[in-house]
Amino acid sequence: MSSPPDINSSQPRIVDVYETVLYGSDIDAVARFYRDIVGLPLIQSDPDLLAALRLPGGGVLLIFDPVAAAVPGRPVPSHGAEGAGHVAFRVEDLNAWHAHLADRGVEIEREIDWGAERSSVYVRDPAGNSVEFVRGELW
Amino acid sequence: MSSPPDINSSQPRIVDVYETVLYGSDIDAVARFYRDIVGLPLIQSDPDLLAALRLPGGGVLLIFDPVAAAVPGRPVPSHGAEGAGHVAFRVEDLNAWHAHLADRGVEIEREIDWGAERSSVYVRDPAGNSVEFVRGELW
């Protein structure tokens, strides 16, 4: 089956995700979790609106207050979601992460062995977002 | 100022974000947007729960139905957020993206020139999530 060349040739490419976004009303508490537990450098923090943490690949994890970010008329388009979001981080040594999380008093909500040396550990950040640490290729 | 070596040496590292998550009740419509407009390969689709699209860096963009994903007792921890989320994609040729989006009838909600050859184009996906295409280092 041949592809439609006109459409494919005009399709620009993204490099990758640049901003991954989660929400939480206590920006400081959520930012501390991703800085102190997940180990991401905090590069910007405005406790009324957002925190930005650097990801190893060069992108950022952004934590927004869902109410402040949804206010109309901001310089950027408004957004803001209520409820538990989800993010998964790729890791190499999941056992080390399990020990690290337990040592820091972070409750392990679930552990799943997907087989074929693939497994996940799930915790919650202070805003209730589901945070997964993944070893292996689930997708 | 010296760093506390005990803490730093025990900090495991993430490789990067593996799953970036957005929500939308019409999974098919949202998945088509990211497949046909953003150009991501659709690798899994269950119209009642989620769609998974491959990102160039090896991770995935997941689209969940916020109600179905929040049902308690799923094999994985529940989550689900209502309201407009946000994602930004890093691109090299933002002019090509602007033309591509306009050609496909996607309304450009805003364009921002951040200076120093950094700029953003914002659109909405069919669920109302704010989707940004970024050239340059904003963070």
| Count of all domains of chain A | 1
Tell me which protein chains meet in the greatest interface and how many residues each side has. Answer: A-B, 67 and 67 residues
Spatial strand sequence of the major β-sheet of chain A: 1-4-3-2
Order of helices and strands of chain A: HEHEEEEEHEEE
Please estimate the helix content of chain A. 10-25%
Strand segment tally of chain A = 9
Shape of chain A: globular
Structural class of chain A: alpha/beta
Taking Cα atoms only, what radius of gyration of chain A do you get, to the nearest Å?
18 Å
Tell me which oligomeric state these chains represent: homodimer
Q: What can be said about the biggest beta sheet of chain A?
A: 4 strands, mixed
* CATH level-3 fold name of chain A: 2,3-Dihydroxybiphenyl 1,2-Dioxygenase, domain 1
If you had to describe this structure to a student in words, what would you say it looks like?
- The structure is a homodimer of 139-residue chains.
- By secondary structure, chain A is an alpha/beta fold.
- Chain A has a single domain (17-67, 84-135), classed as 2,3-Dihydroxybiphenyl 1,2-Dioxygenase, domain 1, CATH 3.10.180.
- Helices cover 19% and strands 40% of the residues of chain A.
- Chain A has helices spanning 5-9, 27-37, 94-103, and strands at 14-23, 42-46, 50-54, 60-64, 80-84, 86-91, 110-115, 118-124, 130-135.
- Chain A has a four-stranded mixed sheet with strand order 1-4-3-2, with helices on one face. Chain A has a four-stranded mixed sheet with strand order 6-9-8-7, with helices on one face.
- In chain A, strand 8 and strand 9 (130-135) form a beta hairpin.
- The longest helix of chain A is centred in the N-terminal third of the chain and has 11 residues, at 27-37.
- Chain A starts with a helix and ends with a strand.
- The model of chain A is unreliable at 1-6 (pLDDT under 50).
- Chains A and B meet through strand 1, strand 4, strand 5, strand 6 and helix 3 of A and strand 1, strand 4, strand 5, strand 6 and helix 3 of B.
